[in-house]
Design brief:
Largest sheet: 5 strands, mixed
Number of helices: 26
Helix content: 55-70%
Shape: globular
Structural class: alpha/beta
Strand content: 5-15%
Strand order of the largest sheet: 5-8-9-7-6
Distance between the termini: 38 Å
Length: about 600
């Protein structure tokens, strides 16, 4: 058999075959790899690359370095067969202006001396791969950075479409500038890029992924390069970090309150206790005081003043009169105050409309489905023509299928006033892009309410996939039951997350203080037991092992969330840990492990150990 084609594409094909056969784990055990690359030449080349790249301070990631090593080996073998990649004159001139060209020159010089070969113009092929490699951020970005205009356009577009302003985030701008420098190189030469974190990014950081899709759209408009989904995933990591810095992924802080009581300390403490029982997750009582202690300065420091006394000499909308013995009327009154102050809280019962709930319908493909769903929204004035078009555009940029028979398409731009979600349950599943889909939820969130986008997405994801609600939805096709289930997802998760028995739930509802005292005692006992019996040296050893070896973590449900947090923490320390979110991905990682790699299995009760 003979392969004919463009030399660059043939080389990409060889590298893809090597990586896909064994993944990033254990490529050295790939039979094809072993048959064409000798261990001695691999080690010599690795040594040369490490030495020269460190001198030029290019700071490649582990994956990028492995990729450069593989392509350097392929370059050696292909050039020995008199096969080389040719470049246009303008590309050559652009390469020669880069520091990566100087680094490549030194690498080629060392290779030619070590292996006694003449590599001709392969310096440009090596330069291409060095430029396109992922790197860690520089600590001191310049003001006049590369691709400044494009990045400004991206941030302006994001603000226009989502009302999220990231223009003052220097760290994000630095990250995007560095990423685009490599990414545009990859796009220009149609190079492969792998993203082991794509599924996790799409499902755990959906808002960041949507911002990356917008960035990808600007890149396409400005450079006429199609942005691959894997590339969008890497862009999303920059936006995810920016959203965390901005606080958009955090829970809302509690309202600070003072309680003013004329009847003394005991009564004030009783009121405080009742406030914390009912609104402890929303109100933090920072002080109880008498009428004489209240001043304008004190009022200015808090969000709410709950008083049993008349404060006629002070004027503020924060002052709210309550009864001395807090009753149900007062509880309802305080609840209404909080609701008025949190108008952006989501009412799931309103965004799911019965007239947009379709079931037992048949369509041939996703285009027909999206056409029907957007048309129904348009008829009711819930989405514009431009918004409808953006649903299809978004689907072109990156598939919205999530696995488990679910897809959640959505508009990229929306000037409507209301947030709505249309639900469709197909009679038979169809192939969406890569997987079968039977439940489709079309999200339409206006840019004025874009802060709810991620909340809605995660709630749907948790119910349909995390709680396996998709099975019930396909079976029952019940609108009212579905709406109720979505609304109650948070409370179900609270119960299951803490693994409370029915009796514990009863105590929590009727005697919350007793429950919290007992719960706090059990936590203290667990911490003391941990402190007295835990061997910290074992953790130090494990961390060293994880840092020095290829490592995969296998988990399900809550432990999987923990595994992803570990993955994220190690990534911040420049170390890649592999975590598969789906069973098929975990199986792929498991099969790729070698006897020298590290596998960590996490399970609450040990049941998951039997899987591997």
């Amino acid at each position: 058999m003979k392969i004919v084609g463009d030399e660059a594409k043939i080389r990409y094909c060889i590298s893809e075959y090597i990586f896909n056969s064994k993944g990033y784990f254990g490529i050295e055990e790939n039979q094809f790899y072993q048959s064409i690359f000798k261990e001695q030449e691999i080690e010599k080349l690795r040594e040369i690359l490490l030495d020269v790249i460190s001198v030029y301070n290019l700071r490649l990631t582990d994956l990028a370095f492995k990729n450069v090593l593989i392509h350097s080996l392929i370059m050696l073998k292909r050039f020995a067969r008199q096969k080389s990649v040719t470049y246009e004159e303008n590309d050559i001139k652009a390469f020669e202006k880069k520091v990566e060209f100087e680094c490549a020159q030194e690498i080629i010089k060392r290779i030619q001396k070590e292996f006694e070969v003449d590599l001709g113009n392969e310096v440009y092929y090596l330069t291409q791969h060095l430029i396109s490699s992922q790197r860690f951020l520089i600590d001191d970005p310049k003001e006049d950075y590369e691709y400044k205009n494009e990045i400004e356009k991206i941030l302006i577009k994001i603000k226009e479409e989502t009302n999220i302003d990231l223009s003052d985030d220097k760290q994000l701008i630095n990250g995007l500038a560095m990423h685009l420098s490599a990414a545009l190189q990859r796009m220009r030469f149609d190079m492969n890029i792998r993203n082991e974190f794509l599924d996790s990014i799409k499902n755990m950081y959906p808002l960041a992924f949507e911002l990356a899709v917008i960035a990808g759209e600007i890149i396409e408009e400005n450079f006429q390069f199609r942005t691959q989904e894997n590339e969008i995933g890497f862009l999303a990591m920059h936006f995810g970090a920016a959203l965390e810095r901005k606080g958009l992924n955090e829970k809302k802080p509690r309202k600070k309150a003072i309680i003013v009581c004329y009847a003394g300390v005991a009564t004030a403490m009783l009121i405080k206790e009742k406030i914390e029982q009912n609104f402890g997750h929303k109100i933090e009582v920072i002080k109880t005081c008498s009428q004489q202690e209240v001043s304008q300065e004190l009022i200015d420091q808090v969000d709410i003043v709950l008083t049993t006394a008349e404060l006629s000499e002070l004027r503020s909308d924060k002052i709210k009169k309550i009864n001395l013995f807090l009753d149900e009327t007062d509880i309802q009154f305080i609840g209404n105050i909080l609701k008025e102050d949190q108008k952006d809280e989501i009412d799931y019962r309103k965004i799911f409309r019965k007239e947009l709930f379709f079931y037992d319908v048949e369509f041939k493909n996703k285009e027909e489905i999206l056409e029907h769903m957007t048309r129904e929204m348009q008829i009711r004035g819930l989405i514009s023509k431009e918004g409808s078009k953006s649903v299809f555009k978004r689907e072109e940029m990156s598939t919205t299928e999530l696995g488990n028979m679910v897809a959640i398409p959505h508009a990229m731009s929306n000037d409507s006033e209301e947030a709505v979600v249309s639900v469709m349950i197909l009679k038979k599943p169809i192939l969406w892009e890569n997987e079968k889909v039977q439940v489709v939820l079309l999200l339409n969130v206006p840019k004025s309410q874009y802060n709810m986008w991620e909340v809605v997405f995660k709630r749907l994801y948790q119910y349909l996939i995390g709680d396996q609600g998709v099975t019930k939805l396909i079976k029952d096709k019940d609108y009212d039951d579905f709406k109720k289930s979505i609304y109650n997802t948070y409370y179900k998760n609270f119960n299951s997350s803490f693994r409370l028995t029915d009796n514990q739930m009863y105590v929590l509802e009727k005697e919350p203080k007793k429950f919290l005292d007992e719960y706090a005692d059990s936590i203290c006992d667990a911490i003391n037991d941990f402190k007295n019996h835990f061997d910290y040296t074992k953790i130090d050893f494990l961390i060293d092992e994880m840092m020095s070896k290829e490592c995969g973590i296998f988990a399900y449900n809550q432990p999987l969330n923990c595994a992803m947090e570990i993955q994220n923490d190690f990534f911040m320390k420049n170390k890649i840990i592999y975590v598969g979110e789906s069973y098929s991905k975990q199986l792929e990682i498991a099969k790729s492990l070698t006897k020298n790699d590290l596998a960590i299995i996490m399970s609450n009760y040990g049941n998951y150990f039997s899987e591997y």
